[in-house]
Amino acid sequence: QVQLAESGGGSVQAGGSLRLACTASGVTDRFFCMGWSRRAPGKEREAVARITSTSQRTNERTTYVDSVKGRFTISRDSVQNTVYLQMDNLNSEDTGMYYCAAAWTCSGLTMIGSVTWGQGTQVTVSS
């Protein structure tokens, strides 16, 4: 069983930055794909970014939804079992609840197998 705890959400003006963090606890060694999804008000949840590595935590691959490419960066600290999402040049369309997720592996933005979700952290961008 793995548990995910997000932090770092908040309110920011357009053009600003936020950094989200997701710390995994429990049985983490079988989850090679972690990432972030978001749900904007009145919309379906969408995948934002994924980071996938081998069992040796090498050869990491990152994938992003087109709308955040060049603005968001996902990274992982394997020692701390923490995944980060650095969000720069935020705009109002980035507003939403951001969820951390973990799965055995990913194909692009699609998580494969059983997915574990965090509780979410709110991001609000004002114009």
List the helices and strands and how they pair.
Layout: E1 2-7, E2 10-13, E3 18-26, E4 33-39, E5 45-52, E6 61-64, E7 72-77, E8 82-87, E9 96-103, E10 105-107, E11 110-112, E12 116-117, E13 121-126
Parallel strand pairs: 2-13
Antiparallel strand pairs: 1-3, 3-8, 4-5, 4-9, 5-6, 7-8, 9-12, 9-13, 10-11
Task: Characterize the structure shown.
It contains no helices and 13 strands. It has 127 residues and is an all-beta fold. It is globular. The model has no long low-confidence stretch (mean pLDDT 92).
- The end-to-end span amounts to 40 Å
Structural class: mainly beta
**Assembly form of the protein:** single chain
Radius of gyration: 14 Å
Report strand %: over 45%
Apparent shape: globular
Nearest-integer average pLDDT: 92
Number of beta strands: 13
In N-to-C order, the SSE pattern is EEEEEEEEEEEEE
User: Which stretches of 5+ consecutive residues score pLDDT under 50?
Assistant: none
Compact overview of the structure:
The protein is an all-beta fold and 127 residues long. It is built from no helices and 13 strands.
Question: Which keywords apply here?
Answer:
127 residues, globular, 57% strand, 4-stranded antiparallel β-sheet, mainly beta
